[in-house]
Specification:
2 copies of one chain form a homodimer. In chain A, a hairpin with a 7-residue loop joins strand 9 and strand 10. The longest helix of chain A is centred in the last third of the chain and has 27 residues, at about 285-310. Chain A has 16 helices and 13 strands. Helix content of chain A is about 45%, strand content about 15%. In chain A, helix 7 runs parallel beside helix 8 and helix 7 (about 105-115) packs across helix 12. A 5-stranded mixed sheet of chain A has the order 2-8-7-6-5, with helices on both faces. Chain A has about 400 residues and is an alpha/beta fold. Chain A is globular, with a radius of gyration of 21 Å. Chains A and B meet through helix 2, helix 4, helix 5, helix 7 and helix 8 of A and helix 1, helix 3, helix 4, helix 6 and helix 7 of B.
Chain lengths: ~400, ~400
């Protein structure tokens, strides 16, 4: 007789939420699908020939170490290389001791959640916000509280504190956010850190896209404004390859120390082999070169997607104009349900992500996220046309 | 002003325990150290030339997929290959749907802990038991309850149930356990599953060493005795390479489903690149060939370590005679403290792991774990001599 699993699940397991994206997409015919859905980088940006050479070298000279267990904190050289990079990006006091390598930034967010969040704890996040981050908060049975605009943040923090629910941290993606594509202004960054300082809050600065800036002025890392209270997370997934599953956390040493203990029981260490490959890749200067070519590659796609939106989108639809990253975010007329639109589009082999899942308060039903990095470029126009036609179709009952 | 981290840690973070091994070893002079400490496989078993060929092929033919994001459940071919292997090992009804790929078996244990364990929940484990498993239980603020011998298990389960603390599962490493080196007999396996059935408990069968059997008869997987209530975990760390950080869980589909949701927020997926390499490695039959040669390799080392123990150990010291795996477990005379012995030995450049940390009840102070897989074979004898001399030295005050 099978055991009744549901009766013995942990409370956290009951609060975990499945990413709805995969299930929905299983309906689609993969080979014909035009996908504006995932946040995948394009495989055309993968430097396969360089990698072949690097793997050969690592296996030739360093196999005994690269295939063995490694330190929980991560490859020492990799930590030093990242510290150097961030020093050049304005984190003046950083050393390798402020760096831990994680199984991509998803684990960075998960470990941060686990060391800070008790059940029912609150934290501040955006409306919308990165789904994977919300999932890691829910997996700790915490309660993310969404803030639509920075201007309302202090008011919400104050309310939470006076209700005895002081937030544990502010979670933000300041550069070309997933899913919104928006970037916090310098003023907003200062405002955010001032609130964090005033109410003694931590900040988690999730920074997977920062290096993919196409135009506009580079703005300071929030971590550079107050290194003592900011936890910075990053990843190689968007600037190198996602298949290695490597990311990092930059934080004060006492926080890194807690993350190391949490990571010991989570997975001991991240792929030691893949870390060795990344070290070699960075040491050869290929990382910086690749970022530069990725910027050019994705800028063209962003430009194309924006011009197609200009050309095809019906009145009443608005969208963000990202200065970098992989997404733009679309707002439909208020009564237009993006989930219904998704079903219509999927029957026509177009996928995107309906925006509701990025909103921890259940709002955003008339929003959707468009990814322009992954789709076959020759199918972009057809995809935007399907989207546009479907919106018009969907709107007609209200016309 | 720095934020007071300690005041905002989660309860789970407060209950997490650091592995003491690393800190202790940092005192040692690494280049001269004779290490009987870690559970590392020997790099001489790594098939580097085969890997070079495989990597070349994967990057030649499959780079776009192997470097991209992959499914949370893991590489489909890898799941199918593992299902086939376990079918041949007696799990008759298994399909790929019963398999999830994890970031090595440490993550397998961590995800199982997270989906089942609430704070203060109990579970049954061995005395001694694998430290990494205990760490994952503590990271959920759960209370592992140690059972020294299978014969006492039912009594302890009954006591816990009547105290309203019914254990969530029984955790066991039935084959060549870490750290004890012991193997459950067929009778003990049946007894364990009978208790699980009678009291409706899950069993976690942690099985990292099973394939490294040197002699004696192969015993059935506990999972083959009752597939409905057993969660089986495994890893490529001891039979291939640990640096890839790849393992798996075999379980009923409804449990796999919960693990998938937990893994989405934990790290999205494990290294897609390393999974592609393992698939190619298995498809070529190299995996089975490598296991056979590993068995021969480690059998010689076990034999040598046992003969050195016979030759050098003073009276009053006993140790287990493992039929496989990487460890033997030593019991010193009752008043002899293994931690003190460790300090003496480390000054003489010999490391092992004092056994107390494997005992969730704080017992085992006169025990220690000896690993024979990693140490330079030419230094084994010197290491055992240092150990023996130090035990004699340590005992003299009581003589």
């Amino acid at each position: 007789m099978a055991i009744d699993i549901n009766s013995i699940l942990s409370d956290n397991a009951r609060n975990m939420r499945r990413s709805p994206v995969r299930g929905l997409l299983s309906r689609a015919n993969a080979s014909q699908l035009i996908s504006f859905a995932g946040g995948f980088p394009n495989q055309e940006t993968f430097r396969v020939d360089d990698l072949k050479e690097i793997v050969r070298e690592v296996l030739e000279n360093d196999a005994a170490t690269a295939l063995q267990y490694g330190p929980t904190e991560g490859n020492l050289k990799l930590r030093m290389l990242l510290a150097e990079r961030y020093k050049a990006m304005g984190l003046v006091d950083i050393t390798y001791e402020n760096v831990i390598i994680t199984t991509a930034s998803q684990q960075a967010l998960d470990l941060c959640s686990r060391i800070f969040l008790n059940p029912d704890d609150t934290l501040i996040c955006g409306l919308p916000s990165y789904l994977g981050a919300l999932q890691s908060f829910w997996a700790c049975s915490a309660e993310p509280v969404g803030v639509r605009e920075c201007d309302y943040m202090e008011e919400i923090v104050k309310k939470l504190i006076s209700a005895g629910k002081k937030p544990k941290f502010i979670y933000t993606i300041p550069d070309f956010s997933n899913p919104s594509g928006l970037t916090l202004t310098l003023e907003q960054r200062r405002q955010l850190i001032a609130i964090a300082f005033k109410y003694d809050l931590l900040v988690i600065e999730d920074s997977p896209y920062r290096e993919l800036r196409f135009d506009g002025e580079e703005l300071p890392l929030i971590a550079s404004l107050d290194s003592e209270r900011v936890i910075l997370t990053g990843t190689f997934s968007k600037t190198f390859v996602p298949g290695f599953r490597l990311g990092w956390v930059i934080a004060p040493i006492n926080i890194i120390d807690k993350l190391v203990v949490a990571k010991q029981s989570a997975d001991l260490c991240s792929s030691v082999f893949d870390q060795a490959l990344v070290v070699k890749y960075m040491e050869r200067g290929l990382f910086e070169a690749n970022i530069r070519s990725n910027i050019n590659y994705y800028r063209k796609r962003r430009d194309k997607m924006l011009s197609l939106f200009d050309k095809y989108m019906p009145e009443g639809v608005s969208w963000t104009k990202p200065e970098g990253g992989l997404f733009l975010f679309v707002t439909l007329p208020e009564k237009c349900d993006a989930m219904e639109l998704f079903n219509i589009c999927l029957d026509r082999n177009l996928a995107f992500v309906a925006g509701e899942i990025f909103h921890c308060d259940g709002s955003g039903k008339n929003t959707l996220r468009i990814n322009y990095s992954y789709v076959d470029e020759s199918k972009m126009e057809q995809g935007v046309q399907i989207l546009s036609d479907s919106i018009k179709l969907r709107r007609s009952p209200y016309a």
